[in-house]
Amino acid sequence: MSKRRIGFLGTGIMGGHMARRLCEAGHEVAAWNRTRAKAEPLEAHGARIADSPAAAAEAAEVVICMLSNGPVCDSVLIEEGVLSAMPGGSLMIVMSSIPVETARAEAEKALELGLRYIDAPVSGGEPGARDGTLAIMAGGEQRDFEEARAIFEAMGRPTLVGPVGSGELAKLANQVIVSNTLATVAEALLLAKVGGADPAAVREALLGGFADSTILRQHGKRMIEGDFKPGGPAKYQLKDQRTATALAGALDLELPVSTLVEELFDAMVSHGHGDSDHSGIFIELQRLNGLSPDGG
User: Fold this and answer.
1) How far apart are CA 180 and CA 211, in angstroms?
2) Which whole-number Å values give the CA distances from 288 to 184, 276, 281, 285, in the listed order?
C-alpha cells in the first residue's frame, strides 16, 4: 500500500483511534481537533498536529472528516475553508453520521472546487475504531472508492453501497436497527430482572439462539453491570434516530417502532443522560417504571 498524505479532522472517542491506525499503517497524517489536547496523543504515533482544519487539508491527497454532526461538518468544511484549501483533484471522505441531503450538498460543493467526495459513515463504536474492525458504508464513485480502499481497510471493512449519499442512508438503516435493538434488549433484561430471574443468567441462556446479537452480547452486559461509560453517547444515537425518522417522513414512510424509540431516547437525553453510553437506555426504562437504578 502506498503512503498517502491524509488530513484527519476530529480526533474524539472514535476519530482518535482511526487516525492512529492510519499512522500505524504508514500514512502521513496531519490531525486537527477543536480541542487540541485530544489530538496531541497522536504525535507519539507520527502524526503532525495542525493548528486549523484548513492547515490539515492544504497539502493532503485525502481529507477525512470525523466530526459530530452535519452542521459542524458544514461549518468546518465550508465556512472554515477545508474544501477551499484542498489541492485540486484530492479526495474528501466524510465518515461522520450526517443527513443524506447534507452529504449530497457537500459533494456538489466539492465538485465545484474540482474535488472528489465519498460519504463513508461507520459502525462499531469505540471498540471497532480501536481494533480496526469498523463497518464502513461508502457512497460515491467506484473509482474513488477503489482508490480509498486501502485507507478504509486500515480502519475496518469497507463496502460501496451506491452513489453519494448512500453511505449515510445505510448508516441510518444501521442506526435504526441499533436504536430499536438497544431498547428491546433493555426491555427484555428489565422484564427478567423485575420478574425474579437473574438477568446475567438470562443473557447467557439467550446467547447462540435467535435472540442473540452483538447488542445483547456487548450492551446487554453493560446494562447488567451498570457500565454506561460512553462508547457511543446517547445524544448522538438520538441525533441519528431523529434523522432517520425525518427522512422516513419525507419519503411518506411510517416507522412506528423507530418513532417510539426516538421518544425513549429523547426522554433519556432530557433527563440528563445524553453523555452516557446509548446502552444507558436501560436507565430510562427504569425511570419510566418508577424503579431506582438498581431496579428496586
Assistant:
1) 14
2) 15, 17, 11, 5
Euclidean distance between CA atoms 18 and 11, whole angstroms: 8
Please give the positions annotated as active site. Answer: 171
- Chain CA centroid to CA 67, Å: 9
The burial class, CB within 10 Å (0-12 / 13-18 / 19+), for 126 is middle
Cell matching residue 190: 428489565
Q: Are 4 and 28 in contact (CB under 8 A)?
A: yes
Using an 8 Å Cβ cutoff, are 23 and 46 in contact? yes
| H helix or E strand, kind and range, residue 101 | helix 100-112
At the top level of CATH, the class of 5-162 is alpha beta
Say what the pLDDT of residue 294 is. 62
pLDDT digits 0-9 by tens, 109-128: 999 999 999 999 999 989 99
Helix-then-strand count for the chain, H and E: 14, 9
Which grid cell is 249?
A: 417522513
pTM: 0.89
**Can you read off the three cell numbers belonging to residue 59?**
497539502
Task: Kindly report the CATH number that applies to the domain delimited by 169-288.
Answer: 1.10.1040.10
Which residues of the chain form CATH 3.40.50.720? 5-162
DSSP string for residues in 181-223: HHHHHHHHHHHHHHHTS-HHHHHHHHTTSTT--HIIIIIHHHH
- CATH 1.10.1040.10 residue ranges in the chain? 169-288
